[in-house]
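Final report, closing paragraph on structural work. Over the funding period we assembled a curated collection of sequence-structure pairs, and we close with a single example.
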Amino acid sequence: MINYQGMEFLICDKVYEPADDTFLLAKNLLVKKSDNVLEIGTGTGIIAIIASKKVKRVVAVDINRYAVECAKKNSEINLARVDIRWGDLFDPVDEEKFDLILFNTPYLPIEDDELVDDELEVAWNGGKDGRFVINRFIEGLVEHLNPAGRVQLVQSSLSNVEETTGRLMELGFEVCVTDSERFFFEEIVVLTAKLV
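Its predicted structure, as stored:
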């Protein structure tokens, strides 16, 4: 159990434990009371639950079934209104649109011989260049955003932040680095982008 922003969250087996990247996104959430929010890769549900206290509606999805169950438990503990669904990226929200989409991306570059083949792997495995999931996310992003929709995502310098920024700009987003934190082998950034 961890305590964060006056709330308690279960840490669950086979679910990514909130870490520096999680808390960097949590402290930089740019939400509006009227927002309809989607969080992809919710894990323990900490980001979705924090957001739910400040916005109109939150849908949270995860490809890890253990994460879905963990997020549901944490939502109940914190009396949060979060619609938690199982599935890959945008699959669980089909044709729904949102004002804000949040994603702490799996961004670590991983070689085949480094794979461990467990539920936790989906939380950090970004493929050989760290961009496999990020690129798929960007491809489906615009069709799930309302006009002037926003996105906040967490990414590592190991997976080419400049490429993400460039791809978002090509799609019509204004992009900025909201915050960053340097570690001994990488820099973690929060990118905030708005459709214009």
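The first helix runs from residue 20 to 27. The longest strand covers residues 145-156. We thank the funder for supporting this effort.
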